[in-house]
Write a structure and sequence with these properties.
- The complex is a heterodimer of chains A (about 350) and B (about 425).
- Chain A contains 12 helices and 9 strands.
- In chain A, helix 4 packs across helix 5.
- Chain A is globular, with a radius of gyration of 20 Å.
- With about 350 residues, chain A is α/β, with parallel strands linked by helices.
- Chain B has about 425 residues and is an alpha/beta fold.
- In chain B, about 30% of the residues lie in helices and about 20% in strands.
- Chain B has a 6-stranded mixed β-sheet with strand order 3-2-7-19-20-21.
- In chain B, strand 14, helix 5 and strand 15 form a beta-alpha-beta unit.
- Classes of the chains: A alpha/beta (about 350), B alpha/beta (about 425).
- The interface between A and B is large, with 42 and 41 residues.
Chain lengths: ~350, ~425
């Protein structure tokens, strides 16, 4: 079938996105240029090292809402601790114990939080794109804490900080070649993973090569077209052999939508085991955004092993989120509130 | 006896091969006389001065959702037809996915009753199966006598082979077409846009091209098997190159298979979803650039039989939600002509007569609307008077529809409607 047009015709242009409306927002890794990435990494380091009693004056009594439509341990707690570490008041609204259960829309929930004095909203939502809607309706700085299968930008930033600590002596000023020569393999349920999408947008901009690895059902070919510097390598061992870092992902059972997977086969092909790691990537960093399902995508020995930086990622989450919460509240909208 | 004289205009009637300065006299809802400029005496008849304008058969949209009965907060027959008249339309075919579903002669008649306040003619398209559930056929003869001009389960494609086969055969016996919204819904569960790199990037589940083309191919196979020249399959809102290829091939094989394309599938791609713009969400979804280019190619090549808007109004609050939760559809009645002239005619050089034909004579023929889509003496006095060169900006806030869910807000249109005349009455005037 011929799908190529014979004539080259002018067609309507795609208009530039008006997002983010607020410069303090962090909706996607695409919103950040490398200077801003460097700024966030630098502030994370500074804030982490500061005296807690000094640090908590930075956002003293400022109001931050955490709006969570999905369960979360790491992201929610680290955002909350980060905001509190800077002195902000936080309010947690979760879908199961709020009027969201009674059918209140995201727009109305956002407007209500703004009326209650929230100056920024941290949103975790099960629908891709929800932070864009919330930002458009409230015009507040919105921090995307994970939207559906789309993005999780603070996770990518904390993953970056973790990798820089080990691979680049902890530099926090990045440039287009900072990760040149580094291959990062992301393994498993790429299709449903917002962590994978944010990382594959962010890391190649510093020169890293991203290899995606997984079965066809969880890693469609079109993933390689998501951006530059992304390739697919379905042979896990071959991918490991090229990698300085390997990021394991959980199979997102809640998003499989009827897809049947042969778990025994999956484990045989894609589980990160001690022998596999020792043979093909004996010095690579092992990352995992959590939650881990021990014995499925990763064995307990590898998760707890010497190459694992999984808990370091969690610690970095607090530092990175201090920096992005500060950025949200300290970055002024040009020309006042829209 | 009412009469209206349109003087000084350039009459363009592609079906009749007319293209020149003519005066036209409308009387009792019909075209009474056509003559050279100044040849018709006014004798006190109400007169419209069309000097500098084109006078064309009123436009016909064979695919609209008027939402009445049942969802009058989105649209009513009165508001939808007012928008249609503003867009130059003098007739629309209303889809049956109302509440209740229009699957009865009673509802079909109710929709056409004068109490609905329609500004122009409404031709109901009735449900092909009871409740559009795809199980039991309706009585097509009774629906046709009540005024239905085709049958369809639009939005709820008929998946079962035997039901679709029976629908095609039964409709053919009474001279109706079956219009299929071609979507194999078993392949589109939970999907809210086209499947491709864009859906992957946005983290949205996608509808594969094959969900459309597969069902078109199945339907064409059924038409082939029926071996009855009266069988007429019409493919609604074609959006993929593969579906078009199937239609093209079916026609080469001598089958009566026709198709329509919506302006948004000619102009927009899945890239226009942008940052989750719910006014770029419809079904079939905006496709890849390759598919869009194939639509343009096909309409220029004459494979496409009609332009139809799939006007699908939704209230503002229904679209101000998460992309996945937003209903499908956009409005289109006020922008179809302006976009068609701006792009098909001006940019892609399709002759004006062909553009107007795709919007009038051809849909009239597909729905077998006798005496419409042309302005020969004796035809219905359905007329649009327009300035085909005028450029203007469309503002959704000024719409006559109850809804404003359009991706074309702020777009430049070409061709301004001056008057729309429905069966001899002025249904819209721009001043």
């Amino acid at each position: 079938m011929n799908t190529t047009a014979r004539r080259k015709l002018k067609t309507p242009a795609v208009e530039a996105s008006p997002f983010p409306y607020h410069p303090g927002s962090l909706l996607s890794c695409n919103d950040l240029d490398l200077d801003e990435v460097s700024h966030i990494l630098g502030r994370a380091t500074e804030l982490e090292g500061q005296d807690p009693l000094v640090r908590d004056r930075i956002l003293a009594k400022r109001r931050v809402a955490l709006l969570f439509y999905e369960s979360s341990t790491r992201t929610r707690t680290s955002f909350e601790l980060a905001a509190k570490a800077l002195g902000a008041d936080t309010a947690l609204i979760s879908s199961l114990s709020s009027s969201i259960e009674k059918g209140e829309s995201l727009k109305d929930t956002g407007l209500t939080l703004r009326a209650l004095g929230a100056e920024a909203i941290i949103l975790r939502h099960n629908s891709s794109g929800a932070p864009w809607l919330l930002e458009a309706e409230t015009r507040l700085p919105v921090l995307n804490a994970g939207d559906g299968m789309h993005e999780h930008p603070t996770q990518a930033l904390l993953d970056l900080r973790t990798m820089l600590a080990h691979l680049r002596d902890g530099v926090d000023t990045v440039a287009a070649d900072t990760l040149a020569g580094v291959t990062v393999t992301i393994v498993g349920d790429i299709l449903h993973s917002r962590v994978a999408r944010s990382n594959m947008l962010l890391l190649p901009r510093m020169g890293a090569r991203v290899l995606l690895c997984g079965p066809k059902e969880l890693l469609p070919e079109m993933a390689a077209h998501a951006g530059p510097g992304i390739q697919i390598e379905r042979d896990f061992n071959a991918a490991l052999r090229q990698s300085q870092a390997v990021m394991m992902l959980r199979i997102q059972a809640e998003r499989l939508a009827g897809l049947q997977l042969d778990l025994a086969e999956y484990k045989a092909n894609y589980q990160l085991t001690g022998p596999r790691l020792a043979e093909y990537a004996p010095t690579a960093l092992v990352l995992h955004p959590g939650p881990i399902i021990r014995g499925l995508e990763i064995t307990a020995g590898v998760a707890d092993g010497a190459q694992s930086v999984i808990l370091e990622q969690v610690r970095n989450g607090v530092a990175i989120r201090m920096a992005v919460v500060e950025r949200a509240l300290m970055t002024q909208m040009q020309g006042g509130r829209a | 006896m009412t009469a209206l004289l349109i003087r000084g205009g350039h009459l363009i009637d592609p079906a009749a091969g007319v293209d020149g300065l003519k005066d036209i006299l409308l009387k009792d809802g019909r075209v009474a006389e056509i003559a050279g400029p100044g040849k018709l005496k006014s004798n006190g008849t109400e007169t419209l001065d069309a000097t500098g304008f084109y006078v064309a058969p009123g436009l016909i949209d064979m695919h609209v959702h008027l939402r009445e009965p049942g969802q009058t907060y989105k649209e009513t027959i009165a508001s939808g037809t007012a928008a249609a008249a503003a867009g130059g339309f003098t007739a629309v075919a209303a889809m049956p996915n109302t509440i209740p579903v229009n699957d009865s002669p009673e509802t079909t008649r109710w929709m056409q009753a004068p109490e609905r306040g329609a500004a122009i003619r409404v031709f109901p398209i009735a449900a092909a199966t009871r409740g559009s559930k795809g199980e039991a056929l309706n009585d097509y003869a009774a629906l046709k006598s009540a005024g239905a001009v085709a049958v369809t389960d639009d939005g709820h494609p008929i998946l079962k082979d035997n039901i679709m086969r029976e629908a095609l055969a039964a409709a053919a016996r009474v001279g109706l077409s079956v219009i299929q919204h071609a979507e194999d819904t078993r392949m589109t569960q939970g999907a809210s846009m086209n499947l491709g790199p864009m859906s992957f990037k946005l983290g949205l589940r996608g509808m594969p091209v094959e969900a459309e083309s597969g069902l078109v191919e199945r339907d064409i196979r059924l038409v082939t098997e029926l071996r009855d020249s009266r069988v007429h399959l019409h493919v609604a809102h074609t959006s993929t190159a593969a579906a078009l290829a199937a239609v093209r091939q079916a026609r080469r094989n001598g089958l009566r298979v026709t198709c329509e394309v919506a302006p948004h599938h000619l102009l927009l791609t899945d890239e226009h979803v942008g940052q989750y713009n719910t006014n770029a969400k419809m079904n079939p979804p905006l496709r890849s650039a390759a598919d869009r280019d194939a639509m343009v190619e096909a309409i220029l090549d004459g494979v496409v039989d009609a332009i139809a808007t799939d006007h699908a109004p939704h209230a503002v609050h229904e679209k101000e939600v998460e992309f996945e939760n937003a209903p499908n559809g956009i409005t289109g009645l006020e922008t179809a002509l302006g976009l068609s002239l701006r792009w098909l005619h001006k940019e892609w050089k399709m002759p004006l007569g062909r553009v107007l034909s795709l919007l009038s004579a051809q849909p009239a023929a597909l729905l077998n609307l006798k005496g419409r889509g042309t302005l020969t003496v004796g035809s219905f006095a359905d007329v649009v008077v327009l300035d085909p060169k005028a450029e203007w900006i469309y503002h959704a806030r000024e719409t006559k529809s109850k809804s404003r869910n359009t991706p074309f807000d702020g777009w430049t249109m070409q061709g301004k409607v001056r008057w729309t005349i429905s069966e001899g009455r002025v249904a819209y005037s721009s001043q």
